[in-house]
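Quick one, T. Sequence first:
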Amino acid sequence: MEDVLRPIAVIGGAIVVTLILGWLADRALHRIDAAHPETPLWEQLRRCRIPLQVVLCAALLRGAYDETGLDTVQRHSTAVGRALSLIMIAAAAWLLVRASAAVVESWYSRYAAGTRDAARVRRVRTQVTLIQRVVTAVVIVVAAASMLLTFPEMRAVGTSMLASAGLLGIVAGIAAQSTLGNLFAGLQIAFGDMVRIGDTVVVDGEWGTVEEITLTFLTVRTWDERRITMPVSYFTGKPFENWSRGGAQMTGTVFFHLDHSAPVEAMRQRLHKILQESPDWDGRSWNLVVTDTTPSTIVVRALVTARDGDTIWTVRCEVRERMIEWLRAEHAYALPRISTAAAPAGPEEIRVARAVRPDGKPDAKRPAD
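Structure tokens:
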């Protein structure tokens, strides 16, 4: 009977203690969060409950598995202990990653809520994202190394690797120079403030918004919902347009090719009315002038402003549509057209026409002038 009760008591006791401690920690965080609603830190830390319970359970079993009295455990004591150690290390790394993410997200949320400068918020968001990725990568590497060092054979291999680290570093640097270049380019973008998450950019003729920045690649979401993934080294080695740099507000133009008789002053008044009725116009500036002329048309340019690159496109389309509709309904003569009528006769043609009868013979009663 003791052979049955002892393993149940050891394993069941570890599980019960783990559940109780996890529940107590969760309730404590819930009470602290209710008492401090100004920060989301404590609510974020509640997401660490599962990895915390795994760490506690693995640690308790690691210290008491010999007390189970099971023959299988006794025969494979080393393997069981090593397996529990591996689980504990992996769970600790999981817990550390989640806790660091909770702290970073909490700090960023408070910073974003108290800062009105959208450009600064995007810059901090980019830096925080990349820093969190670096922390995660470091934790994973350290955890993997710790797990490997639990094997005695790997300790000897580690000593040999340290002895030849210089040569391996040179070889790895040459073989992975592209990857390392992207890694350092990602850090340069994060702390050099070249491009940020949420910026409106134009790369390779494509217009879009920066959606994600990692240590090796950058994703741009285009206006038609496509995603363009590019290495971050592109943005440190080639020129690109950043419409959000120095402020998100934009100035746009709309061109009209019209007849010379177009009512420019009436168009100017109509443009102002259209903009006043548009919710996307930011009210900063507007203008309408004739910028060019050709033998058959004139070029009228309407200038409008908006708060960002997405909105300026909407304003331009609205101005173009409503202005053309107004011209077609009120001033159709102003729209460009191709004339197919015969040219007016000159003085010589009129003199000849008066001197000739319809049958082609000279008219004696109507001498030429």
